[in-house]
Amino acid sequence: MNEQPFLLASGVSHRFATSVALDGVHIEVHPGEVVAIVGESGSGKSTLLRVLSGQMSPDRGDVQYIDHTGCRHDILQSRERQVRSLMRTEWGFVYQHAADGLRMNVSAGGNIGERLMANGHQHYGRIREQAMDWLRQVEIDPARIDDFPKTFSGGMQQRLQIARCLVTHPRLVFMDEPTTGLDVSVQAKLLDLIRRLVAKLRIAVVLVTHDIAAARLLANRILVMRNGQVVEHGLTDRVLDDPQHPYTQLLVSSVLAA
Ligand SMILES: Nc1ncnc2c1ncn2[C@@H]1O[C@H](COP(=O)(O)OP(=O)(O)OP(=O)(O)O)[C@@H](O)[C@H]1O
């Protein structure tokens, strides 16, 4: 990987009242790469994603992001307003539950158009055209543009959430279990769609998943978490085909046995 990392977190530790969620985590993400964070439930994956995306301040640690102009942002010291601005422009977030990333009482087209308007787009006709185009890209019939997300299936809602997120071409997207809870066949289609869009737009992704198959399909690199620590990291094929840590070996063998 030639380019320098544009997201860099080090020494991130956080303790909740009854548990250690993160314990000295270090992670680097380069432009255009997909990094999967895998591990069993409670290992700290979602907490790490919230810290990286500036939604939560950990007890200790440092998170730096370098934007497209080369300006460095100290995410944990930034004001909420600055993080919100990054989230609107350079970043995107795809939630496990589509309702967290969509406005359910706004039409499909409105959901996509809103993000464009938040970035200064004003021309109604062009916004609607882009919304139509993005509905097509996520394989939703553009004739549904004025329908509300609550009339969509779970898989469609998730595809709409992805369209809303990607319409502004973010450089970095955080995804928290984007396919969990969907039917297996719907999951496979959605993963394939994410893979194609991410490659086409050359977006970097930090993907939290407990699904090793999803990590294999999408990720260039994998971090394996256990009890708040990164116990192994490396290129996807290396980690999954030749796991070094006993916990990774267990994780991989349990998938093969399933
Ligand atoms: N808001 C909170 N208050 C108290 N404890 C929390 C909170 N959020 C997370 N935890 C605890 O921190 C630890 C890490 O949780 P986290 O949700 O980050 O794990 P995870 O790997 O994402 O799990 P899952 O796959 O089940 O979402 C767990 O022990 C969890 O119970």
Question: Can you walk me through this structure?
Answer:
This protein is an alpha/beta fold. It has 2 domains: about 5-90 and about 170-255, Rossmann fold, CATH 3.40.50.300; about 100-170. About 40% of the residues lie in helices and about 25% in strands. It is built from 10 helices and 10 strands. The chain has helices spanning about 45-50, 80-90, 100, 110-120, 125-135, 155-165, 185-200, 210-220, 235-240, 245-255, and strands at about 5-15, 20-30, 35-40, 60-65, 70-75, 90-95, 170-175, 205-210, 220-225, 230-235. Strands 6-7-8-3-9-10 form a 6-stranded mixed beta sheet, sandwiched between helices. Strands 2-1-4-5 form a 4-stranded antiparallel beta sheet, with helices on one face. A hairpin with a 2-residue loop joins β9 and β10 (about 230-235). α4 crosses α5 and α4 (about 110-120) runs parallel beside α6 (about 155-165). The radius of gyration is 18 Å and the shape is globular. Adenosine-5'-triphosphate binds next to α1.
